[in-house]
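tl;dr need the bound structure. longer version: we got a ligand (flavin-adenine dinucleotide) that a collaborator sent over and nobodys looked at where it sits. i said id run it. heres the input, straight from their email, havent touched it
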Amino acid sequence: MIPLSEGQVPFSADAVIIGGGINGLTTARELAKQGLKNIVILEKNYIGSGSTGRCGGGIRQQWTTEENIRLAQESVRMYEEMSADLGYQVFFRQGGYLMVTESETDLPALRQAAALQNQCGVLTEFLQPQECLRLVPDLDTSNLKGATYCPKDGTAYPFAVVWGYAKACHKLGVNIHIRTTVLDIEMDDGRIKAVVTDRGRITTPVVVNCAGPWARDMAAKVGVSLPNRQERHEIMVSESLKPFLDPMVISLSNGIYFSQSLRGEIVGGIGDQSEPHWENPDDFNTNSQLRFAVRFAKALLAYYPRAAEVRMMRQWAGMYDVTPDHRPILGSVPGLDGYFHICGFSGHGFMLGPVTGVRMARYITTGRQDDIITSLSLDRFEKGEIQADGFVVG
Ligand SMILES: Cc1cc2nc3c(=O)[nH]c(=O)nc-3n(C[C@H](O)[C@H](O)[C@H](O)COP(=O)(O)OP(=O)(O)OC[C@H]3O[C@@H](n4cnc5c(N)ncnc54)[C@H](O)[C@@H]3O)c2cc1C
């Protein structure tokens, strides 16, 4: 059992982290490892209750921008060691990712991305449609034009990851408060002064905004305007089946992704352009929609006809915290001492979270920015230095 407090918050802290998702937990743990004492995590619901506990657990290094490739590559290395490092089984399985397309026009981008990934040391290979059958024997390749495959990509179990990090945080003395809502952030002369919650006020010089889909609201409390918007996404899970599918299959053409979990379930989702964008994440509903079930089933059968006999067991919805270039916003804000944000991960914060925590904790404790944090800072939108990743799928 990990002791999580639901009582009064402490009067003071050296750093307050808002959000008990993967980013809040990894950052808190790394801050503690780097010697910062008296760290408090504030989570308004339960650990993993935001996007993290609703995600597909996919971890891939197949991206078109070098920042995403490098972050994912470093995260994969961390995922490979994570169960041992945290002393907690996170069920990381490297079945690979098979990224397919039905369009000839995607082929140059797939080849180019594979070349960039190879340059970064990622073992991606380009495959002809027929070659996909050695990885997924019953895949319907009739409409496929090509694919890329990286054997080191994979999946982990999101709740195990957050529980593992929560345990590791607790071991290092981090105070985790659940069912505790941040109501306000106080500033004094351009500096962070305190965080006000529904369970008391904490004086602190450092606030890290890891509030996921609520990050924009938290930033607004200190006058920072984030360009993030929220998007609803759903996932469907089947009954458990004997192991038959190693890689995560993901389509650049229609956005479907599906894999088989260690429990044997097919787990997958598909993006929906017609979903409304949500202005207020608290208005968002997590009801499941038949429209999604139908779209997912149709798309799944088109790639994997043998799934026709499979019973679907459950589905759920969650939110993506989306930025204009679908890449995270990291770092601090000039003129606002002690405020940091780690947000805007769109559909890939679970895979980028572990290494982001390491890099951001180093930045927070030493003040030394690294090249990735610099390139993902908020002012890139103002400066027009936007470089969208071409492989945003799902
Ligand atoms: C359907 C779906 C599938 C996805 N699949 C993948 C995938 O396969 N791979 C991948 O890498 N990513 C995936 N993602 C994206 C991924 O889940 C997110 O990018 C990631 O979990 C973000 O983590 P986080 O810690 O930043 O935010 P969150 O996990 O959302 O955590 C933020 C936390 O802050 C808390 N909070 C908010 N406001 C307050 C407040 N005022 N006071 C206190 N606490 C507060 C919330 O309760 C929440 O728990 C998926 C997302 C969804 C919805």
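gonna send this back to them w/ a short note. The first helix runs from residue 22 to 33.
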